[in-house]
Every structure is written in structure tokens, then in C-alpha cells.
Amino acid sequence: RRAKFAKLKSEPPVTRDGHRVTVMVNAGLRDDVAALDVTGADGIGLFRTEFQFLVSATLPQRERQQRLYRDVLDAAGDRPVTFRTVDVGGDKTLPYLDHDADDEEENPAMGWRALRLGLERDALMKAQARALIEAAAGRTLNVMFPMVSEPWEFDEARAIFEQQREWIHSRGRKLPTEIRYGAMLEVPALAETLDMLLPKLQFLSIGTNDLTQFLFAADRAHPKLAMRYDWLSPSILRFLRRVADQARAADVPVAVCGEMGGRPLDAMALIGIGIERLSITPAAVGPVKAMIRSLDRGKVMEAVADMLAAPQRSLREPLKRWAIENGV
Ligand code: PEP
Ligand code: MG
């Protein structure tokens, strides 16, 4: 099987009815970029910049951040890379970031993390913005913000980047040819104001790991809950379909970058609700590509629409049967 997937490396992820799906990988370390050549993926859809912060004993200085980002862009060549600004805080605490005694959190996943921390500790965010902008001189910079809960948070984060861009420009230094800004949708509340946010976005990326834990109020790491709610439940798929429809209507590309997209059956369901871009763990690229190349997109969209109109507890079993009957 491994050999079969390796052979798929140079085959594009095109469905039987001729639809090209974009399949990218998630990464976080310099060496992860090698996965692009190994898998033949279309780019890095999620580069988790906090990895460098988490493996470091001290706060990574701007120059060190910048070196990593430039190395990643160099290694990726003309394949796009989307950098996510640091998602630390909560359970991913940094020992060198001063925490007060009352910072102890009972619910770290819903706590002071990601953009919430970044906007308050804006020195951290400014340094990262400058590192990313300088690293991407002469190229496109794709940057996205984690845990955006309301549109104004995106506005503030973008403003920090724009200020840094102007500052770098005023020093006569070379800028990226373009900065493309995106938001992660992983806090359900954002779906309610998405119409206000979409016109400002160049892209949207759905983080289904956090999104589903918040939708179901079920800790994503709790072993007793892992089997209880299914990614292929009607509530999740209907939610995602609504977001995908809204983004498409606004002409904003939308990807799924959570682990869900790395499971072939779940990825098939995502294609069935209109998702055309996936960013997944590198080991999943082969199996997901194989699924895509045996899939009729028009047919799976019809099947999923029917199943969601007469919902069952989970679409997993009916979708499995459908896949077998349809040679996927
Ligand atoms: C997610 O929440 O789905 C996601 C991709 O981000 P992370 O897993 O890093 O929280
Ligand atoms: Mg997340």
C-alpha cells in the first residue's frame, strides 16, 4: 500500500469527474517542509509557528524567527506556505512568558491563548509580524490568525502587520510582493458574523480540531469523549456546509486544516459539502489522494445532501456503504 501511495506523488488529486482538489500539508518545523517533495502536496496550508516557541528554552528572538521562516519559504520554492501566528497559551504555556499566579486556568482551551494573548502582548506579535514580512521579501506572504472570535480581532491583528509593513517600507527595505491575510474559523461564534469578516479576507481556514470541541462542548483530548461525538455527525457537517457556502458566495477560498481532513472517509464527506481545499498531516496525503482520484464529486455531493436532509446520528456508516457501492 505504501508503494501505491508513493506512486501517487506525481498524480494530481483530481476527481473522476475532473474536479481538482487542493491537498496541502500541515507543518511546524523546518524539516517538515521535506514532506512537500515526499508527498507531492500543493503547499503548506498550516505552518504552526508556535512549535519554534515551544521547543525553545527562551523566547526566540526576531532574527531566529525570521531565519526559520525564510528557510521554510526557500525550501517550499514556488509552493505556497500559510504561516499561522503563534497559538500559545492555554495548555501550551511558555515558561519564559511571565505568568501571574492568577493566570492559572481551569479551562485552558477556552482561555488566554492564541490571538487573545497576541493582541494583548503585542510586542510578541509585532516581532513576529516583522520577522514574517522581512522573511517574505520579494515573495507572497500568506498569514493567518488563530482563534479569531469576532471580526474586530482580525482587524487589530491585520493592523499590527500593516504597521510593521509600513515601518519596514519607510526604512527602504524590500517588502513582500503581496501580503494575503486569512482567519481561522475554530470558534463557533465567528460563524455568526462571518458576513462582516469575509469581505476583508483573502482566505479562510477551518480548524476542525478546536471547532468541534467548542461546538460539542467536548474536550478534544478527553479519552472518554473521543468516541462519543463523530466528525461525521449532522451538526458538524451542516455547520461546515453553511460556512463553505457563505465563503464561496463571497468568493473567499476556504480550507479545512484540522485532523478531520486527513481521514479519507471524512475528507470525502468534506468534498461532499463543497470543501475543495484540505491541509492535512503528511502521512495522510497518499490515502486522501487515492480517495479523491476514485471519487465522483457530483455524486458524493448529491449523496451527502440527501443524507443531511434525513439525518441519522452519524453519516459514517451510510457514507462507508456509499463509498463501497461507488467504488471509492
Ligand atoms: C484546529 O484547531 O483544528 C487546528 C488546525 O489548529 P490546532 O490543532 O493547532 O489547534
Ligand atoms: Mg486550533
Automatic annotation (TrEMBL):
Chain segments annotated as transmembrane: none
Cell location: Cytoplasm
Family: Belongs to the PEP-utilizing enzyme family.
Protein name, per record: phosphoenolpyruvate--protein phosphotransferase
Residues of the full protein shown: 428 to 755 of 758
